[in-house]
Design a protein that fits this description.
Elements lengths: L3 E6 L2 E6 L4 H7 L7 E5 L2 E2 L15 E6 L5
Parallel strand pairs: 1-5
Antiparallel strand pairs: 1-2, 3-4, 3-5
Length: 70
């Protein structure tokens, strides 16, 4: 069984398995990674870095869903 780590997601306590990549975590919580923007520990994380970003204990994520309309 994987070790669980504690995170903060949109101001709420959350947890995930250690060594989880950011896009995998987004899918695990039911989000389409192509339709969100992510602030990672206070900085906007450009999409090009998502595939190399492993979540760590204590990380703070702010996830914003992109909504289209007119």
């Amino acid at each position: 069984m994987s070790q669980l780590i504690q995170l903060q997601v949109n101001g709420e306590a959350a947890e995930c398995a250690a060594q989880t990549l950011l896009p995998d975590y987004l899918q695990q919580i039911g989000l389409n990674p192509r339709l969100v923007a992510v602030e990672y520990n206070g900085e906007i994380l450009h999409r090009q870095f998502w595939e190399e970003t492993y979540l760590q204990a204590g990380d703070r994520l702010e996830i914003v869903t992109i909504v289209g309309g007119g």
